[in-house]
Each structure stands twice: as C-alpha cells, then as structure tokens.
Design a protein that fits this description.
The complex is a heterodimer of chains A (114) and B (112).
Chain A (H helix, E strand, L loop, with lengths): L4 E3 L2 E4 L5 E6 L6 E7 L5 E8 L2 E5 L7 E4 L6 E5 L8 E8 L8 E2 L3 E5 L1
Parallel strand pairs in A: 2-11
Antiparallel strand pairs in A: 1-3, 3-8, 4-5, 4-9, 5-6, 7-8, 9-10, 9-11
Chain B lengths: L4 E3 L2 E5 L4 E6 L6 E7 L5 E8 L4 E4 L2 E6 L4 E6 L8 E8 L13 E6 L1
Parallel strand pairs in B: 2-10
Antiparallel strand pairs in B: 1-3, 3-8, 4-5, 4-9, 6-7, 7-8, 9-10
The chains are: A mainly beta (114), B mainly beta (112).
Amino acid sequence: EPEVTQTPSHQVTQMGQEVILRCVPISNHLYFYWYRQILGQKVEFLVSFYNNEISEKSEIFDDQFSVERPDGSNFTLKIRSTKLEDSAMYFCASNIAGGGETQYFGPGTRLLVL
Amino acid sequence: SQQGEEDPQALSIQEGENATMNCSYKTSINNLQWYRQNSGRGLVHLILIRSNEREKHSGRLRVTLDTSKKSSSLLITASRAADTASYFCAPVGSSNTGKLIFGQGTTLQVKP
C-alpha cells in the first residue's frame, strides 16, 4: 500500500540554522499538508498546498517557514532560522481530493533545536 | 474547520474488553474523521463518516454519528494491547479547505 514518507526521521540543529524537512507524498495525491506536534501537545495544522500554491496557512506559519514542491515527487518544509520553540515532531500529509477528505500522514520528522 | 472534543481524556481497560470514546463538536459538518496515533508516530486514518450516515463499521471498529446532538462515538470491540494509542476525531465542515484541527484526544491503554 502506498505511504507518505519523510526524511530525515530525526534532525538536531543549532538555533539560528536553516533546516529542510522532506516529504514524498503518495504519488497520485494533489493536496499536501504540514502539521507539527510539540511534545505532549496537540497536532497543529501549519499549511496546505495545492497546484504549487499555499491554500491556507496557520498563524504558526510565519515568514520563517516556507514550503516548496521542487519536483514531481518531493514536498519540503523549510525553516529559515530555527528557534528553540520550533522543536517538535513535523508531519507531512497528503490526499487526492483536498477539501476535508481523508488525509494520509507520514511517520514524522523529530526536530530538536539546541 | 472546527475542533472536536474527545471524551474521556484517558481510558484504561483489559484486553478483550470494549472501548468507547466520544467526540463532540459545535457546528454543522460535512464529515467526521477518526485517527489513531501510536506514541511518537504519525496519525493513521481509521474511519470517515459522512453527515448523512449514522453508523459505519471497519473490522473491530464501529463509529456512530448523531448530527442532532453534534456527537460521534468510536467503539473498539475485543480490544488488544496493540490498540494502545491516542485517538482523535476531526469534524470537517462543508467549507473546509483541507485543514484538520485535532483536540487533545483520548489516550487508550489496553492492559494485557
């Protein structure tokens, strides 16, 4: 069964450094999402992406964050200058039909900012 | 989009027993989705129930939806230790753009 994959599984970085989290959505999916989960807290929506554009973003998704689909298979989340509070699990998700249909989540990247 | 509120926050049962968790929401929905999250892992979709459906089954899972009460329940029958996880509901409104909003969830512990 097709799966969403994410790399790396773990990333440790120094505060102020740039990180890029990578996701490979399911191949025929058209809608892509990033969520994050700070340890012990809720899963929070960051951004949705369709047709090479951001569809919606949350208040968390400020100018330090950007997303890109650089080719036909990858979907990336970049954090330009990481802060301690960016430490979290980041999940990518995708679906074929958008608009509130089932989303398929990847296993996550655990980001630790020191 | 709106957030569902899961109840109870925590549930501990013995293997073989049934587990019921509930979800309440505030405004009208197009569908309601249930997800499971094993500790430190990604969310796994369990069931999507649409607003015109009252009950849906998938294996040992049964989901009900009462739109008049704005509530849903997830029943896991004959629970197993592997069902130990957090369970979340995500109500989806008709104008939803794809964003899912998750609550704190119900943490289920199934003791062997």
